[in-house]
Design goal:
alpha/beta; eight-stranded mixed sheet; about 25% strand; single chain; binds benzoic acid; about 260 residues; globular
């Protein structure tokens, strides 16, 4: 299944710019070259796709959300974007590189995205990605689980819609698909949120919806308020909220013989 979030693309661009701002140094790792064909998988509103285009590469950004792709086209009319599901996307011609920032944790089953990446790459082509790794947003998820469980007097199973693998788990998936992992890092990236005391409520409004589908509409604001209070001792300080992000960053190369 793919996590169906009804993306608000302008809110994403306006209040959650940190998503692509943090991804900028991932482009240094990609090292896009003039004339290379590069696929940006899960391009969102296109900011990093445009940076890759600025380097002279021939880049295509794909995203499953038509709202995101429309916003990307408005933001960067000279860059190519397509609405496409990363699980089944099969390009006509292979790419020199596949790039992805903050998208792969939304895609299930993860193996379907990895298969697309393997199919999209030339032999010897590179895959450079960053997304939520094992332990990502642990305090946020724990607080949501407790708030929802407490509200309904039961534990909500399968609450967490995201895929946050360890290095070993993701490397195995890539290797099974014919990619050789050259480098991988799992690291904390505490991420300050904008908007002072409303920052966490805004984050939950943007990203937390899949966790709240089990909660009837009329109970949601109470659950959110309770979750925010449970997070406060861990994630609030110096007048702002900080999301407890952990990133998995990976560089892999498609085997020649595949
Ligand atoms: C992340 O970028 O780590 C993330 C974003 C939204 C929901 C969960 C994780």
């Amino acid at each position: 299944m793919v996590c169906q979030n009804a993306w608000n693309a302008s809110l994403y661009d306006d209040r959650h710019a940190f998503v692509y701002q943090h991804g900028a140094d991932l482009i240094d790792l990609l090292k896009p070259q003039p004339g290379e064909r590069i696929l940006d998988l899960g391009c969102g509103t296109g900011h990093l796709t445009a940076k890759i285009a600025d380097a002279g590469a021939d880049v295509l950004g794909i995203d499953a959300s038509s709202a995101m792709v429309e916003q990307a086209r408005r933001n960067f009319p000279g860059v190519s974007f397509e609405v496409a599901d990363a699980r089944g996307f099969r390009p006509d011609r292979p790419f020199d590189a596949v790039f992805s920032n903050a998208a792969l944790h939304w895609i299930r089953p993860p193996g379907a995205a990895v298969e697309t990446i393997a199919c999209a790459l030339k032999a010897g082509g590179r895959f450079v990605a960053e997304f939520g790794g094992r332990g990502n947003v642990r305090q946020i998820v724990t607080a949501l689980e407790a708030a929802i469980g407490g509200h309904f007097g039961r534990v909500v199973e399968d609450l967490n819609p995201w895929y946050f693998p360890s290095i070993a788990e993701y490397a195995s998936l890539l290797e099974r698909a014919g990619l050789e992992v050259r480098d991988a890092w799992l690291f904390d990236r505490p991420t300050p949120l904008d908007d002072g005391d409303t920052g966490m409520a805004n984050w939950l409004a943007m990203f937390g919806e899949p966790c709240l589908t089990a909660v009837p509409e009329e109970g949601r604001s109470e659950v959110i308020a309770r979750a925010i209070e449970l997070m406060r001792p861990h994630l609030w300080g110096e007048g702002r909220w900080t999301a407890d992000y952990r990133r998995l960053r990976v560089v892999a190369v498609k085997d020649d013989e595949r």
